[in-house]
Amino acid sequence: VSPLAVNRPRVFLDKMKYSTAVSSSRRKSRKAHFSAHSEARRKIMSANLSKELQARHGVRSMPIRKDDEVVITRGVYKTREGKVTAVYRKKWVVHVERISREKANGATVMVGIPASALTITKLKMDKDRKAALERKSNKEKKEDVTMSNVD
Hints:
- It is a single chain.
- By secondary structure, this protein is of the alpha+beta class.
- Helices cover 33% and strands 26% of the residues.
- It has a 7-stranded mixed sheet.
């Protein structure tokens, strides 16, 4: 036994983790995140809705998709607005209209913006999106009711 192990205080946690099926290992979490399949990445690449949309739909965030209108909330391009032209799941970035830069050889390239740095200001609605909003708003209402019963 090393001398460091003897002098180290032992800490016992009173509470077990909530789900034993999910690992709390940093290594495993990172592996799961970066090797996630496309549909999982869609959900991970969600963006907050604007305050106005949150009030209207009763939902805080949604997976981002092409043709949503967004405002950039962090980084060099902060406060810039535009329409989403592509969601590049493989690189974990979103391409926004008119957000581009010029390369050394003169070519213009779209700048990838992380989904977490965006706020959705206008949703592109279709029947699936509408159903998802309904589902999420009902779920959040149920959570509010259950939390109000806690004393």
